[in-house]
Amino acid sequence: MEVYNGPYLAIKYEQVNSRLISTWESSPPDDLAYRKELKEHLHIAENIKPSQIIWILENLTFKVDEVTKKWVDDSISEPIFRAGFVGKNQDGCDQVAFVVGKDVLAYIEIIGIFDKSSSRGFNPTYFATEANALNWLNGEFNTKDSNSENHNLEIAFKGTDDKGKVVFEFREQASKFYSTVTIFKTLLEQNDFMKNNVEKYSSLTPREKETLKFLVKGYTNKETSEHMYISKNTIRTHRNRIWKKLDIQYFKDCLKYECFFN
Questions:
Q1: How confident is the model over 136-162, as a mean pLDDT?
Q2: Which of 93, 195, 199, 234 is the 20 to 30 Å CA partner of 241?
Q3: pLDDT tens figures, 219-256
Q4: Between residues 218 and 169, the one the model is more confident about
Q5: 122 and 218 co-located in one domain
Q6: Does residue 8 lie in a domain region?
Q7: Per DSSP, what are the bridge partners of residue 156?
Q8: Looking at beta carbons, which pairs linking 161-170 to residues 24 or more positions away fall under 8 Å?
């Protein structure tokens, strides 16, 4: 039964399964339109109180910025989570499923809304196909069992497109889709971090870079001094200069610079 048909979002409700299905029929052009449609989803979810929610992202290409991610988490996801009507699946996960579209970068931004370590909202499960998502919600597909399968990722070079861009094809088990794309997400984040911070890292002297390597591995000042054959006071001096050149205040911030080591 269709319960909403907006400019960009269509929402159906399957009463027999207590399942709300939200489909992006087309991608919203801006943040305002995106938020407006999500408010409709929240209003309907709070009225119907479904035990299952599925999002179909096939046509979504809108890139969600950091401000909107937080807004979605605070204003949409958390109120539904706190209401408590969404149930758990057979493998202990929230019964919230996302079916990914062709725009992987847009999908990566959606992943960024939900923090796996967060206790404030849902930990959704992601699928490459709607069929897999429905099977999972129906209790016919266990992600933990499927993720234990040993299959290698296949990568094939497909040539160049009409714009001269190189095209690669990745083949992976559908059950491993989320873990594969999160690897891409990590690589993209590291690439952006390196581009934005390469000048800071390059300002370090060779000895400061060597010191940084030991620090991010968890070595104490004493252990680092023993490996580098210099005094602890010298390590402290290196450390203070590293913090100043990298413009960081906390130890955890320097861990991000590990991506430069290789």
A1: 69
A2: 195
A3: 999 999 999 999 999 999 999 999 999 999 888 888 88
A4: 218
A5: no
A6: yes
A7: 169
A8: none
| Contact criterion met (CB below 8 Å) for 9 and 41 | yes
**Domain span at residue 42?**
2-143
Q: 3-state class of 104 per DSSP?
A: helix
- CATH number of the domain that residue 219 is part of: 1.10.10.10
Q: Which of 47-56, 206-215, 250-259 is predicted with the least confidence, judged by mean pLDDT?
A: 250-259
Residue 146, Cα to own-chain centre: how many angstroms? Answer: 20
Q: Would you say the C-alpha torsion 157, 163, 164, 166 has a positive or negative sign?
A: negative
Domain boundary among 111, 143, 175: 143
For the cut 70, the answer to whether the pLDDT of residue 102 exceeds it is: no
Q: Is 180 exposed, middle or buried (0-12, 13-18, 19+ CB in 10 A)?
A: middle
